[in-house]
Amino acid sequence: MEKCTITFQPTGKTVEVTRGTNLMEAARKAGVFMDAPCGGKGVCGKCKVKVKSGAHKHEYNPLLSPEEIEQGVRLACMTWVQGDMTVEILQIDVINDIMVEDITSGSKGKFIKRTVETLTSSGVKTGTKFEAVSLKLPKPTIDDNIPDFERVERELRQVLGCKNVKCFVEVLKKLPQALRRNNFEIRLFVSKNSDDCNIVSIAEKEEARPLGLCTDIGTTTVAACLVDIQTGEIMASANSGNLQMQYGADVISRIIYSTKNSGLKKLQQAIVEGTLNQLINNMTSKIGIDKNDIIFSVFAGNTTMTHFLLGISAENIRIEPYIPAFRHAPIFRAGDILLDINKNAPVFTLPNVASYVGGDIVAGVLASGIWNSDETILFMDLGTNGEIVLGNREWMLTCACSAGPAFEGGEISCGMRAAIGAIDEIKINRYDLRPEIKVIGNVKPKGICGSGIIDAIAEMFLTGIIDMKGKLNTTIKSDRIRYNTYIGCSEYVIVFGDGTESGRDITINEIDIDNFLRAKGAVYSGARTLLNNAGMTPEDIDKVIIAGGIGQNLDIENSIMIGLLPDIPLYKFDFVGNSSLAGAYACVISDEARKKAAEIADNMTYIELSADPSYIEEFISACFLPHTDVSLFPSLKDVMNL
After folding, report:
1. 189: closest CA among 237, 228, 226, 138?
2. Are strands 85-89 and 73-75 parallel, antiparallel or unpaired?
């Protein structure tokens, strides 16, 4: 088989592949990140590259303009290697540029504090079995010549009052040198449970603290923080995009990829080695601590992400009857998955509820206190996957909606994730139809993210630019409303090319709107289905809690305008940010919180929407602006003359 060498600029990375290899697969093999929300199906247009030289074949795609094709721009997933090539990556660094809300500091840190207050007021105590113990041991003599471990064991029994002392072999390997290097004064991190004490680690520094790692593994973003287990103080935090994005924006695309040769292994490497270990290195370098001092970790993620973290097949999650491999994963060691912390550190994953409702939602419910509330609460996590919970202390119903990547800017022609250069707020002038925009980072816009898309659609609907079906009114005379013959539909120009970073117009077209209406329709119909199952109406909701990345700049009124959220008084809405990370934090500092999380997962009733006879009808009705049943949105009657 003929071999070809591919060079990727500006990284300079090279890879040798067989002639006929897909260019995206070549990039993955070279370790070059390539954004691929659609999983390489050629429908998102995000994997644009510029072929500088070399023979190749490519498929025509309407997402590329004739000018781009002439300039050598290609979609990597639709290009095949025919000889040695030099390729320039055109996409932004989506891994490091994604904006992830930091709820661990400043005013946002109030939610962490609120989470702890919610738990303690409900009778859940903080505190764990982990602690640091400093020992000053008598030096060995001819008369006191017991072995090193037994010497430590004898002292621990006296100090902690435990009967049985154990340790890992890695601890035993370091013990003789550590004792003599420190003149038989030693600091240990131990796990104490009843009469048993297990030495997890030897602290090299007297001031070292036993640390816990808590992480929210989102489909798109990953956020983590290091916590002093004993005091609850957050020592460092970090976040980034989930490197698995190169295998698809949604869990279904990734599950399909996992079934390919070495696919599951690559997905596990992408999250553990490519994402988590980088975040850990970032945090430990920032505060100058030994990774060996991280002796416990908690992960919250959806069911698929948890399977991939552990390297367990998620194939059956997408096949009826949608069965995951586990609900409660056994506690394992960090070394089992090559997590770059103390290899003996126990790893706890918050339990799943069902195939598409995972530990991230359990963490959110734990942190927000729904499980102990007298009020009926609607909890909505508006991330890449849309998960919803309805209930209170007596009962909880939950479901997952196939919203797709639209809320993260996927399946939108000029869409992008919430990063520097993304338009995240839009207001359209009622008279000349010109938009006023806000751009993350106050730079020239590159595209539009989820909250900006919601604003755009709401404003276009309010001004009459689009109708209830999302179709543009081309009878309006405006240079911003035009028919695009290249894609075969009408579009609205948000920013003309002379005002954008790329020089290309930023637009939103009827295909984009249709994709977004399906996403918002999935979420709203999911909420309606839960209400129907509970025999309730929106008026029965006491509070709506919104979690997830899109909520940072979410305009509630505009979200009601397009029919994403129920039409209830604005004071009932509460945004809590990354509730998944907050719940994981609670489980690091509290043994009882972990037990409560397990109870929550077991007490939630999962509604499989595909099996609910009313869901399809609800979904179809919700794919309009705001809905086919306008009586569900009484507050819009005067605004829209409904």
Report:
1. 228
2. unpaired
Full DSSP string of 373-436: -SS-EEEEEESSSEEEEEE-SS-EEEEEE--GGGGGTTTSTTB--SBTTEEEEEEE-TTT--EE
One-letter identity of residue 327 = R
Pair 213, 296: CB distance under 8 Å: yes
Using DSSP's 3-state secondary structure scheme, residue 147 falls into coil
Is the per-residue pLDDT at 551 higher than 70?
no
Read off the amino acid at residue 492. Y
State the residue for tokens 């990345």. 549
Could you give the CA distance from residue 137 to residue 36 in angstroms, rounded to a whole number?
58
Q: How far is CA 186 from the centre of its chain?
A: 40
Percent of residues, the chain, with pLDDT higher than 90: 72
Encoded tokens for 394: 């007596």
- Taking the mean position of all CA atoms in its chain, how far away is CA 19? 36
In the chain, what's the furthest Cα-to-Cα distance? 101
Measured in Å, how far apart are the chain's first and last C-alpha atoms?
A: 66
Let me know: does 276 contact 229? Beta carbons within 8 Å.
Answer: no
CB 604 within 8 A of CB 398: yes
Average pLDDT, integer, range 70-96: 83
Separation of CA 256 from chain center: 19
Sign of CA dihedral 485, 491, 496, 502: negative
